[in-house]
Amino acid sequence: MQTAFRSFNLVRNLSTKPSLFNSTQLTKDKYPYLRRGPYAKIETTDIHFFQNILGVNYVITDQTELVPYNVDWLKSVSGYSKCVLKPKTTEQVSQILSYCHKRDIAICIQGGNTGLVGGSVPVFDEIILSTSAMNDIISFDKLSGILVCQAGCVLENLMNYVQNEGFIMPFDLGAKGSCQIGGNVATNAGGLRLIKYGSLQGSVSGLQVVLADGQILDSLSTLKKDNTGYHLKHIFIGSEGTLGVITKVAIQCPNAPKYVNVAFIGLSSFHKVLHLFENIRSKFSNSLSSFELMDSVAIKCVCENIGLKCPIDDGLEFYVLLELSTDHSFMTKSLQDFLEESFMQKIIEDATSADQPSQIESLWKIRESIPESLLRFGYVYKYDITLPHKYFYQILPDIKERLNNKFNVKAISGYGHLGDGNLHLNVATTAHNEDVVSELEPYVYEWTSQYKGSISAEHGIGFLKRKYLKYSKSQLEIDIMKKLKNTFDNRQILNPYKIFP
Ligand code: FAD
Ligand code: 2HG
Ligand code: ZN
To answer: SS3 breakdown of the chain: % helix, strand, coil, rounded to 5?
Structure first.
């Protein structure tokens, strides 16, 4: 077993933006049964109105410039919006929404456009309201750890900002270089450290939101405790752009841990992965800040398609990346002893550990590059499910059997946030094929529902999963959600065709 870290080359700056050339089929052609809602079509007078509010540079109508805003990161859906608006202030958003509400113009709200369920791009010709120009940090209180910022701040910029103050953001995602805090809140993003720092529902203390008719709802509380009536912020966390435009976020940041240790571990069976998880939790309990599973297919894809190198024996069935965050200097030794012991007990086959930032980053890069590495094949069918731990990997052999030697499938991989019971099942092919979809859906959702799991653990429902909401929500729950939608957006102008079947 290795205990010393071996360095290896990294491919940096993975692209997270679609190219200017749109090769993605239009959503309206891919799903011909869809009908455009009775919304107004954009006219020159509308464009002039928007230009008056925002200035000409913040209204995009050029055909080529529009492309990356119309296509999602996965290149699975594409709208044909003729107009992107880039407000800088809440007041501008309010004016835009008030106007669109009166004119019956449909709007798709877009942050970093890294969403994985087709929610961030228009389905037809909805105008796109991009929050990218709303990127001011408003305040940071070192006593409370509360950061207040505009919704368009890129997550990585916020991470760097609070790090300089001795804090961390309470969550982290592979898309951090592009995704925005507003989009993170709108999707209730989970990510890599939820096991220790909890979900955004716990760490977001307040939000400012512009409602569909242009009213500004100021719930931007920076208080840790506030039980005065209903917590309206929770309605918007995870609302995926269907209830209002999040314009400002107040979020609680934890103090940066003094010591971070990461281990990259190889194991020969899934049973042993669970054994390791049980042991590490009982030994390090609250210090465990990540427990990520990667199967051999995921590692192979990262190595072959991205060019990264597996830091340990690359012939094993499963790999775990675990992270400990503490204020205790003895953690490096404790972790190495733990790995040594697990090796002696034949729970793990190989491992390497790191406690220096650059080494830690290199190990994380392997995990964070998995989505990109699978997409390099051409097209990926993605399932993001929560399951009880004992069934976590059990769907993989079933799927392999269903797709066995058919459809020129390039990879079937299971990876994800095992610590939170969140599996990412990815099937990669060279191009989209409806026959593959028919093999996978509703099969995956039925399977998940049978084990009382969730059909969307962290990515949301968006456009791609709306037909399957019923596998995780009862009819009564869906009816109440619809009533809420009507209360907040009676003209259905915000992100139409999303979430609801
Ligand atoms: P977008 O993609 O632009 O939008 C997502 C949704 O939010 C859309 O429905 C949009 O209408 C809505 N929205 C955006 N901004 C606002 C706003 N200001 N007000 C109201 N609605 C808004 N997700 C995880 O949960 N965990 C992960 O570990 C994770 N890793 C990822 C890794 C990669 C490489 C990629 C590409 C994606 C990953 N994601 C992950 C997906 C995740 O949902 C997004 O990355 C992120 O939360 C979306 O932020 P965004 O700014 O890109 O939003
Ligand atoms: C991750 O955990 C993201 O890497 C993306 O949630 C998962 O692409 C996926 O399926
Ligand atoms: Zn994830």
So the answer is: 35, 20, 45
